[in-house]
Amino acid sequence: MDALHTTGIHFAEVLQAGPPCLEKFWISVTSLADPKCVFTICFPLAYFLDRKVGVSVLWIGLVSEWLNVVLKWFLFGERPFWWVHESGLTRKELVTLRQFAVSCETGPGDPSGHCMITGAALWPLVTALTALASRHSRSLVVKLSPFGAYTLLLLAVGLSRIFVLAHFPHQVVGGILAGAALGWGLQGHTPATRTMGFFVAAALALLLGSLALHSLVIAAGIDIDW
């Protein structure tokens, strides 16, 4: 893993050595793609356009947020900002990296929550826009434009997370793949016609499930708060 982490650090160096004008862009992307924006921005907009799509965005966002936390408990994952010092890499070679206000994230880093949750929650919105484009145009470019924008967005989010030293490249790739797979898998199981009671029960089930898993991990002698 040290070789993989070192390669990731060098990739972050290359990104940070890019044109200075890109610095504000990467920081803006990583801020705007914060998972909470799924619930405060993406969900209301999607719900306004189509109720079922909005509920799907909210449901998948909720499940992916929960699953991301659980995966991080088991996969752990170093954070570049901390690892570069703790590993002793800075004593072995010259490392030229900059710190930003959003760099010092704590907790496990694998997989990237920004990539996974955003990728999963936006999937129903992207597929809905693709269907809408297909009904109004025969152009393949127009039909594929929503997925093209989706791919570019996730790529930008992933690069921004590497740029600010919040994640290693492999954590970003894992987050993108997990998010797209989760969005694809859950879209057909959106409980759009369920009552409020179902969602309350689902929220309690997720809460109790996470507490049970947390207790099991602690009982196994694994310090998830390392």
TrEMBL record:
Subcellular compartments: Endoplasmic reticulum membrane
A Pfam family it matches: PAP2
Keyword Transferase annotated: no
Topological category with respect to the lipid bilayer: Multi-pass membrane protein
Enzyme class, broadest EC rank: hydrolase
Keyword annotations from UniProtKB, A to Z: Endoplasmic reticulum, Gluconeogenesis, Hydrolase, Membrane, Transmembrane, Transmembrane helix
Top-level taxon: Eukaryota
GO molecular function: glucose-6-phosphatase activity
GO biological process, alphabetically ordered: gluconeogenesis; glucose 6-phosphate metabolic process
Its EC number(s): 3.1.3.9
Transmembrane portions of the chain: 56-76, 116-133, 140-162, 168-186, 198-222
Domain (Phosphatidic acid phosphatase type 2/haloperoxidase) ranges: 53-187
Pathway: Carbohydrate biosynthesis; gluconeogenesis
Keyword Membrane (UniProt): yes
A GO cellular component entry from the record: endoplasmic reticulum membrane
Family label: Belongs to the glucose-6-phosphatase family.
Name of the protein this chain belongs to: Glucose-6-phosphatase 3
Organism: Rissa tridactyla
Gene from which the chain derives: G6pc3
